[in-house]
Amino acid sequence: MRRIGLILSGAAAALVLGAGLAQADAIDGKWCRKDGRRMEIDGTRIITPGGADMTGDYSRHAFQYLVPEKEEHGGTRRFLRLRGENWVYAYPADQPGADPEIWERCTPVS
User: Fold this and answer.
1) pTM over 0.85
2) pLDDT, tens digit (0-9, with 9 covering 90-100), for 38-61
3) Cα–Cα distance, 1 to 83 (Å, whole number)
4) So what's the pLDDT on residue 96?
5) What is the spatial distance between Cα 52 and Cα 75, in angstroms, rounded to a whole number?
6) Residues of the signal sequence (predicted)?
7) In terms of C-beta density within 10 A (0-12 exposed, 13-18 middle, 19 or more buried), how is residue 17 classed?
8) What are the backbone angles phi and psi of residue 102, rounded to the nearest 5°?
9) How many other β-carbons are positioned within 10 Å of the β-carbon of residue 76?
10) Which domains does the chain have, with CATH numbers?
């Protein structure tokens, strides 16, 4: 009986820890810039730095969307790539070699 309890405790701990690691290894989350801008990605949904709630093209480590006309870079496609656990690099989608705009997780994942 005691052995089953230990196994169940270990499984529960793995689930809790695994949920945090899954978030860390995905582009989903809240992203911030030092200039105060923020955005949030949740699957195919994004809240843009200008506050638009819209959808885009999602993969676990990348996101692409058409920037609303009234926002900076309006009318262009932006490509976001997860770099490590706590950074996203943003580029014009048609200029992948451009200097990236670097975003940090608002609350770093450890």
Assistant:
1) no
2) 999 999 999 999 999 999 999 999
3) 45
4) 80
5) 13
6) 1-24
7) exposed
8) -100, 125
9) 15
10) 2-105 (2.40.128)
